[in-house]
Backbone:
């Protein structure tokens, strides 16, 4: 692992996302938002707001063209994403932080117990917590479904050459429902963890700047923090046991570490990421 | 105001309701220009075609002279008109020994003659069934119609109403009246359409059974506002045209049809596009399928009819007209106006079912988790405030 520690005004920051990951995120924002707007308008096309949106996009044919153009951008971005992972693997930079583990289930259970007051302390997370992994893999699942069903509707003749005709209306049903699910999930989950959560309100900038403060690292990703700091030998690794978050607060050099921790934002675009 | 002078000919002179008609004769053909300048604007162009004396007056087979190989072949733009319909436009002048007059440019009576009465917005009559039938003809609307633009006289269709007073109306209802005119007039020119139409599900009922529920020409094409059926607007409006009957629950029940075919069409890809395109701009040329692209136009059959365009054996051919290369499994991509259920479209049904569970199943826990987190944040803050 490359060193991930930088210095700025006496405070330490960690590089969390590479430039290519940050660009990927921006592409996702543009394509996802446009796809949702043009897609939901088509799904509920009899609604007045939908009619207004379709009109604003220059009519139904041009709305569809834009939707498909954005779909192509999403496909290209997904292919690039997978290719980058493959490339890193080929170079020997193999990382498995984004893979789901049994610990994620335990962490989720732990957090719920913590919220209801049964456990005293938060779960300790590694580079990606279970919420980020859930969002990442939801995005993967959703993208696969949306691309597959979208292409089926775009190329019905070619699709029915090897699949029964009924898959076309089924694809339409799935595309609409999955799109709605993705839209609502992003609206609720991602907006919450990246914007509205008390710790990050109003805006978690990590996915745009690529950097995360040492305080937040200690608070939100203690396992990763210890691994990094331990390896660089600049600080003694913390005890492996469940760490009291007030202790973490005390260790952290001053300032605004929130009472609660939450997502580091961005939803973890890439399992084979930096450090 | 009581005197109307119509020109060029035939001239109708006299007060309203007391009309004296001076019928045309070849000898007066040259008087036209002078008369027209003082006229209130006739619907027919000035003048008449020059009359060629017919030495063979009354001969039945026009084509013996006017066929492509004859001494006086008909104009090239007449190529698609059949021999039988020569007399639909051309009046044979047997008695005078003169030539044939063109009904279209030189009718027995001009449109202004008719409009003297029918141009009054309040003109109306009550039919035996009690329905009030407006007799008003909007001249501007008619002249904009496809027949009006080619200067067709009223009497081309209203063949019985060439004189005043008119023969008494025998039809009891508006639809009956319109059927009479359709049978008598539309098909005398639109012969090929009639050949198709009389074999269709609508035409059979109309022609053979005298059914007045089925559409005749005016129900789809309009009456005095008939527009060319090749315009984008006609196409975009056509689902509404069919819906006038096919979304009517009463007619659906009477004939055992579904009243939801328009709804299911509009819910699907083709229909939604057509609806939105029309809303955007009624002159958009959208190529998405409308009712008649699949079901046919004048040759609509019952869906089960082996000659139907949409019968199972024929459907893929119909799809291929827009989707070239479509495979035999392609037609199943259209749910045939049915709402997907477990028996009919199981894959669609189960996909919908799965998402009905998946969406709340995913969003519910998310919302719950967020609420728990927020509640804990509030509790911690309160505790912190107490301790601090």
Residues:
């Amino acid at each position: 692992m490359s060193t991930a520690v930088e210095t700025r005004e006496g405070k330490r920051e960690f590089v969390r996302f590479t430039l290519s990951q940050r660009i990927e995120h921006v592409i996702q924002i543009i394509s996802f938002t446009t796809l949702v707007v043009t897609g939901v308008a088509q799904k509920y096309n009899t609604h007045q707001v939908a009619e207004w949106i379709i009109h604003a996009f220059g009519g139904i044919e041009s709305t569809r063209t834009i939707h498909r153009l954005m779909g192509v951008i999403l496909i290209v971005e997904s292919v690039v994403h997978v290719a980058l992972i493959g490339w890193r693997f080929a170079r020997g930079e193999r990382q498995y932080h984004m893979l789901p583990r049994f610990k994620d289930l335990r962490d989720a259970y732990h957090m719920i117990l913590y919220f209801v007051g049964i456990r005293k302390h938060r779960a300790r997370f590694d580079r990606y917590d279970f919420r980020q992994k859930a969002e990442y893999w939801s995005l993967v699942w959703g993208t696969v479904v949306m691309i597959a069903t979208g292409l089926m509707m775009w190329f019905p003749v070619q699709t029915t050459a090897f699949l029964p005709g009924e898959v076309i209306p089924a694809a339409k049903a799935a595309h609409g429902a999955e799109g709605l699910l993705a839209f609502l999930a992003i609206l609720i989950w991602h907006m919450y963890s990246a914007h509205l959560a008390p710790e990050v309100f109003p805006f978690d900038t990590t996915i745009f700047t690529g950097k995360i403060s040492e305080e937040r690292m200690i608070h939100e990703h203690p396992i990763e923090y210890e691994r990094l700091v331990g390896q660089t030998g600049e600080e003694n690794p913390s005890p492996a046991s469940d760490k009291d978050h007030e202790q973490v607060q005390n260790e952290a050099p001053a300032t605004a570490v929130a009472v609660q921790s939450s997502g580091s934002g961005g939803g973890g675009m890439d399992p084979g990421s930096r450090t | 105001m009581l005197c109307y002078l119509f020109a060029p000919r035939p001239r109708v002179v006299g007060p309203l309701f007391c009309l004296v008609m001076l019928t045309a004769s070849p000898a007066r053909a040259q008087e036209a220009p002078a008369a027209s300048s003082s006229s209130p604007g006739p619907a027919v162009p000035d003048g008449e075609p020059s009359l060629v004396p017919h030495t063979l007056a009354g001969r039945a087979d026009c084509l013996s002279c006017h066929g492509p190989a004859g001494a006086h072949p008909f104009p090239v733009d007449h190529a698609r008109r059949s021999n039988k319909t020569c007399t639909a436009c051309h009046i044979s002048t047997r008695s005078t020994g003169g030539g044939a007059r063109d009904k279209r440019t030189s009718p027995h009576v001009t449109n202004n003659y008719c409009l003297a009465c029918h141009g009054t917005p309040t003109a109306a009559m009550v039919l035996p069934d009690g329905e009030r039938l407006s007799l008003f003809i909007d001249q501007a609307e008619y002249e904009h119609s496809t027949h009006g633009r080619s200067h067709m006289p009223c009497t081309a269709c209203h063949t019985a109403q060439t004189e005043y007073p008119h023969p008494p109306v025998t039809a009891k209802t508006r639809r009956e009246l319109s059927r009479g005119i359709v049978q008598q007039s539309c098909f005398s020119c639109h012969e090929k359409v009639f050949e198709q139409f009389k074999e269709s599900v609508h035409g059979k009922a109309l022609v053979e059974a005298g059914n007045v529920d089925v559409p005749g020409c005016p129900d789809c094409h309009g009456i005095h506002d008939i527009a060319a059926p090749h315009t984008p607007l006609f196409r975009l409006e056509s689902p509404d045209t069919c819906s006038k009957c096919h979304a009517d629950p009463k007619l659906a029940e009477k004939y055992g049809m579904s009243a939801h075919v328009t709804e299911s069409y509009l819910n699907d890809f083709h229909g939604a596009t057509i609806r939105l395109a029309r809303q955007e701009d009624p002159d958009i040329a959208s190529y998405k399928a409308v009712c008649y692209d699949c079901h046919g136009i004048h040759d609509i059959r019952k869906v089960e009819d082996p000659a139907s365009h949409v019968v199972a054996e024929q459907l893929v051919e119909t799809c291929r007209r827009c989707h070239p290369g479509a495979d035999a499994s392609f037609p199943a991509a259209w749910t045939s106006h049915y709402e997907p259920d477990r028996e009919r479209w199981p894959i669609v049904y189960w996909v919908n079912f799965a998402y009905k569970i998946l969406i709340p199943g995913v969003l519910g826990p998310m919302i719950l988790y967020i609420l728990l987190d927020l509640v804990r944040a509030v509790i911690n803050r309160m505790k912190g405030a107490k301790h601090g």
In short: The two ends of chain B are 101 Å apart (CA to CA). DSSP finds 18 helices and seven strands in chain B. The beta strands of chain B are 3-5, 11-15, 20-22, 90-91, 101-102, 124-126, 132-134.
